[in-house]
Amino acid sequence: MPDKAYDTVFLDVDGTLLWGDLDVEGYVRDLAPYSTNGPLTVERAAGPVWHGMKEHISQNINHGTRKELESFKRGNQRRTAETLGLDAPTDLLAEVSERRISFNPYPESETVMGELRDMGFKLYVVSNWDVLLEEVLEDLGWTDYFDGIIVSAVVGVEKPETEIFEEALRVSGTSRDRTVHVGNDPETDVHGASQCGLDVVFVNRKGYEENPEATFTIPDLKPLPRTLGGRRV
Fold first, then answer.
1. 149-176 pLDDT, tens digit each
2. Residue finishing a domain among 44, 76, 102
3. End residue of a domain, out of 54, 78, 102
4. Does residue 229 sit in helix, strand or coil?
5. Fewest C-beta in 10 Å: which of 8, 68, 113, 188?
6. d(CA 158, CA 55)
């Protein structure tokens, strides 16, 4: 195989390695007995439940410790319940909310990460996520793939800000010109990493229009080992 142009790969998580989902039907089954304003249906619950998830995503940067995050999550879960007219114990709301969230790897993710490791690349997560990301990766059995995990809520800054990429470069100890970032979002991943002077692999799962800031564009992760292993310096 030709010499690699890169030594280190930064990997986004959500939308690149996995996707998150909410089981709204399960949420409704669990909490319907606590409804105070008529039957709780999937149609009525879907909007507020997904809104709560989006609120969590948008606010996790503000909660840099587990204690802070758990307090925020419980308040968020309670607000969703009140919107739906649910009179349920706080502990039950927390348990149901956690159980009904799932993180689903894309079919090729584990194979590709294994191939990259076998090729000698160092892998680092660089992700906009809350402080519990490492636990999510542990539950998936993925932590051994990575040499380090750089999380926005821990660093205190989110992609596309260049500071999070600079922190990842500091942690990895690798040079900018030997590092490539892989992600699915045109703004946070492609623009953010390119502004930091990094080459970028755009994983264009959603069929966005061509992105001139991307060094490479691939439809999913399957071509990634060949893409990175076949480019000469």
1. 999 999 999 999 999 999 999 999 999 9
2. 102
3. 102
4. helix
5. 68
6. 15
pLDDT at residue 5, as a whole number: 87
| Residue 189 belongs to domain spanning | 8-17+106-229
User: How many residues are there in the chain?
Assistant: 233
Q: Element (H or E) spanning 32, and its range?
A: none
Distance CA 54, CA 73 (A): 12
Render pLDDT for 90-131 as a digit per residue (tens, 0 to 9): 999 999 999 999 999 999 999 999 999 999 999 999 999 999
Q: How far apart are CA 212 and CA 201, in angstroms?
A: 11
Q: Work out the pLDDT band at 137, boundaries 50, 70, 90.
A: very high
Q: Does 3 fall in a domain?
A: no
Q: How many domains does the chain have?
A: 2
Coil/strand/helix, residue 132 = coil
Q: Which two tokens stand for residue 178?
A: 């030997």
Contact between 116 and 228 under an 8 Å Cβ cutoff? The reply is: yes
Query: How many angstroms separate the CA atoms of 111 and 117, rounded?
Result: 10
Residue 62 scores a pLDDT above 70? yes
Question: Taking 90 as the threshold, does the pLDDT of residue 4 lie above it?
Answer: no
- Asked if residue 81 and residue 184 are part of one domain, the reply reads no
Instruction: Return the DSSP state at 101.
Output: E
Report the CATH number that the domain containing residue 149 is assigned in CATH. 3.40.50.1000
Report the half-sphere exposure of 169 (CA within 13 A, side-chain side): 17
